[in-house]
From TrEMBL:
Residues 126-268 form the Cytochrome oxidase subunit II copper A binding domain. Subunits I and II form the functional core of the enzyme complex. Electrons originating in cytochrome c are transferred via heme a and Cu(A) to the binuclear center formed by heme a3 and Cu(B). It catalyses: 4 Fe(II)-[cytochrome c] + O2 + 8 H(+)(in) = 4 Fe(III)-[cytochrome c] + 2 H2O + 4 H(+)(out). Residues 268-326 are annotated as: Disordered. This is Cytochrome c oxidase subunit 2. Its main location: membrane. It is a multi-pass membrane protein. Its EC number is 7.1.1.9. Keywords: Copper, Electron transport, Membrane, Metal-binding, Respiratory chain, Signal, Translocase, Transmembrane, Transmembrane helix, Transport.
Length: 326
């Protein structure tokens, strides 16, 4: 009997040791080599996914220990060399009901929090800003809706050159090989950001693991998703739908910055304010008055009556600039 107890102690120690890597709670946002558990990510969606995963994981651990424990206990305690004789029954209704009802109860208990989290994941209401993502063979286009900012984002030149050089990339020399882009998607932290996601040619999928979801980008269909990044940082992802020969070469890089830094960045990307387009229109209108200097100095109020055609253009962009900086 003491032998059996000793065996159980060893079994429990072995199981605990096997579980050790997943007990490391602090996970980086991006996957690391030899990382065993999924990451926590940096958004509420990714946190929800992580929590659901850990609940399911621990349920599996408890079931695994109970089932294998009972099996090994029976195999050693009732072994033939000890003179054990097998019972001859082949049916036990009570046991069958128990081992059917218990799993059903476990699944139902797990389904409630999972469903709640899924519903939250698809709730894109009350977003503070919207980014339109369009997949192309083989790059992404980002549009900050209502902000007059859009750009494409492709594999960074150094990654592309290295890939075509036939050299072998190492993590040390090329830490972000094939995971770097020319134009990063800059987003503010602690902001509910809605994404509308589509594609122009074939099906792609926009996926940044640290955000906690991936969403298909399908031509002719607009899918939705949202995020609320909690930690500033750089988060990398990839196209997750086989989309052609360069599917592996259209990475995604999200740079999450403070709200103030984001507004500064956005303003720097916005087209120049109204006076610039108003000036050339005004020039032919005022040749008698002559010099160009007062014309360019002129307030937009002057531009409006002078060039009726330029006024509608000048007005909205004039308004959008202070809004964006607010
Ligand atoms: Cu793709």
């Amino acid at each position: 009997m003491t032998q059996v107890n000793g065996f159980f102690k060893r079994l429990i120690t072995a199981c605990t040791l096997l579980a050790m890597p997943v007990l490391a709670w602090a996970q980086p946002a991006d996957p690391k080599p030899w990382q065993l558990n999924m990451g926590r990510g940096v958004t509420s969606s990714s946190q929800h996914a992580y929590d659901a995963h850990m609940i399911a994981f621990w349920v599996c651990v408890v079931i695994g220990i109970a089932v294998f424990g009972a099996m090994f206990y029976a195999m050693f305690k009732f072994r033939k060399s000890k003179g054990a004789v097998a019972a001859q029954f082949s049916h036990n209704t009570t046991a069958e009901i128990i081992w059917t009802v218990i799993p059903v109860v476990i699944l139902v208990i797990m389904a409630f929090p999972a469903t709640k989290k899924l519903i939250a994941m698809y709730d894109t209401r009350d977003a503070e800003m919207t980014v339109k993502v369009t997949g192309y063979q083989w790059m992404w286009k980002y549009e900050y809706l209502g902000e007059d900012v859009e750009f494409t984002s492709r594999l960074a030149k150094q990654s592309d050159a290295f890939r075509q050089s036939k050299q072998v990339a190492t993590v040390k020399d090329n830490p972000h090989y094939l995971l770097e882009v020319d134009n990063e998607l800059v987003l503010p932290v602690n902001t509910k950001i809605r994404f509308v996601i589509t594609a122009d040619d074939v099906i792609h999928a926009w996926w940044v693991p640290a955000l906690g979801w991936k969403q298909d980008a399908i031509p002719g269909i607009v899918n939705e998703a949202w995020t609320d990044i909690q930690t500033p940082g750089v988060y990398r992802g990839q196209c997750a739908e086989l989309c052609g020969k360069d599917h592996g070469f259209m990475p995604i890089v999200v740079r999450a910055v403070s709200k103030e830094d984001f507004q500064k960045w956005l303003a720097s990307k916005q087209p120049a304010p109204a006076p610039a387009p108003a000036a050339p229109v005004e020039a032919p209108a005022a040749p008698v008055e002559a010099p160009a200097a007062p014309a360019t100095e002129a307030a937009p109020a002057d531009a409006a009556p002078a060039a009726a055609g330029a006024a509608p253009q000048a007005a909205p962009s004039d308004e959008s600039a202070p809004q964006a900086q607010a």
